[in-house]
Amino acid sequence: MKKKLFFFGIDSATWDLIVPWAKAGKLPGFWKLLKQGSTLDLRSTMPPITPVAWPTAMTGVSPAVHGFYDFYRLDASRQITVNLASELSHAFFWDILSRAGKKIAVCNLPITYPFKKVNGIMISGLMTPGIKADFIKPKSLKPEFLKRFPKFHFAPGTKVSKNDPKSYELRFKENLEDARETARVAKWLFAKDDWDLFAVNFMAVDHVQHFFWEFMDQPNSPYHDAILKVYQIVDQYLLEVLTKYSDQYQIMIFSDHGAGKLEKTVFLNHWLREKGYLYFKNTPLVLMKRLLTNLGFNPEKLIGLASKLGLVRKAGRIKMQTRNRFLNKLILSYADLDWHKTRAYSFGMYGGIFLTQKNKKLLTEILTALRQDFKKELTFVDSSENIYQTKVLPKTIPNIQFLLKEGAIVSTNIYAFSGNKLFTDPITNKSGEHRINGILGLYPKTDLKVTKPCLEDITPTILRFFNEPVPDYCLGQAIIDKAESLSIDEIEI
Ligand SMILES: [Zn+2]
C-alpha cells in the first residue's frame, strides 16, 4: 500500500459506458484500470445528484445530516437560495488531513466554494460564482493561475435549444475544452509540490451526458460520439496518471453517481394540486400565470419569446437573477402558493415531497396515493426517515422521496410548476440523467473489505488510508484496511 493518495474524480462516470468502450479498445486508461486495478459500483446518495452526493463523499455524513437536497433550497420566506459549501458543518476529508500536517492539493471538486485554507493549494469547482470569486487559495497564486488559464470555467455551459443547432455545437466544444483544461490545470498543480493527497475532478463527463445522450442512438448524428470523445480526453490523463504516478500514489477513481437515458419530466406539483394538498393564491396575477402555464408557456418559451421581442438579451447570456426576476413576473413560483392551505409541495430536481407540518397520517396518505397513481412509473418511493434511518430530518430534506423509470425527473426551481401536463418531454432538453450507481476504482489492485461500498464510505476510507482517526459522526466504513497492509519497514518500533 502506498503512502500517498491520488483522488481522480469523474463526475457522473458510469461503468455502463466505460466497460464496453474499454473492451472495444477505445479507453486504454480505463482498460488498464479494469484489468489491473480493483473496480466496484459505488452507491450514490438518495437523490443521486451532485450537490447531495459530493458533500456526503467529502464529509462521510448522509444528506439527513448535512442537509443538502439540491443545488438550491427554499429559505424561510420561500425564496430559492443556493446551498453553499460554507453551510456544511462537518469537515471535508482534506481539512482533517490538512490539520494532521498532510500536504494537500484539491482541484475542481464540486460544492466546495467558499472554502477554508488548506495546508497546500485548493481550487473550488462547480457552483463557484466565477473567476472574480476567491476560488483559489493561497490567494497569491491567483495571478499566475489566471495568466496560465485565462479562459478557465468551473464547468461547461448548460443551455441547448432544439431550434438552435449552434447551441449544440457550442456546448460540445465547451465540453471537450473543459475536459482538456481540467487535465492541464491538474498537471500544473501536481507539479507544484510533493503532495500527500492530490484530488482532481472532471465535470465535463456529467455535462456532456446530460445533453448528448440521445445522440448515442443516432449513428448519423455529428454528435453520435460526443460523450465518448469527452471520456477519451479524461482517459488519456487517467492512463498517464496510472502509468506515471502509481509507484508513489494509491490512485482512487471515483464518480458521485452514474448516468443513463432521460425520457421525461414530471411536474408533481400539479398532481399535489389535483389531490388537494397544494393550493395557489387566488389573485388575478396568479390566475393569469396559471392560464399562461395551461397554454403551454414554460420558462424556456417565455425567454425565447422575450429575446425575440428584444425584452431581454439572448437566452444563455443573461444572468440567472435577471432571468428569474423576469420569469417570476410571468410564471408560477413558490411565492404564488397559498401557504396557509398548502399541506405538501414538491421541490428540487428530484421532486421530493415536503410536508408543511409534521403529520404521520398525511405522510402515509401521500405515500399510498403515490404508489397507486404512479404504479407504472415508480421504481422506488419511501419516507426520508426510512431512507436515512433517522427520526430527525433537517427542514431542507423532503419527507418523501422517489425515483422514476428512465430517470424521469422533476425540474427544479423556476420550472417547478411550468408543465401543463403531469409528464412532458424533458423541458431543459436534457436527454441523460443520473443513476444510483457511480464508479469506484483502486489502482494498484487493493484488498477490499467491503463489496458494496456507498458514498458515506469514501471519507472513512481516505482517512484510514492515512492512518488518521475516523470521526465518530462518519456513517460509512473504510473499504480498505491500511493497518493490515503496512509493510515491516513502515511500522515504527
Ligand atoms: Zn454529479
From TrEMBL:
Membrane-spanning ranges: none
Gene3D superfamilies xrefs: Alkaline Phosphatase, subunit A
InterPro entries in the cross-refs: Alkaline_phosphatase_core_sf, Phosphodiest/P_Trfase
PANTHER family: BIS(5'-ADENOSYL)-TRIPHOSPHATASE (PTHR10151:SF120), ECTONUCLEOTIDE PYROPHOSPHATASE/PHOSPHODIESTERASE (PTHR10151)
GO molecular function, one term: hydrolase activity
Protein name as it appears in the record: Phosphodiesterase
Pfam families, A to Z: Phosphodiest
Domain of life: Bacteria
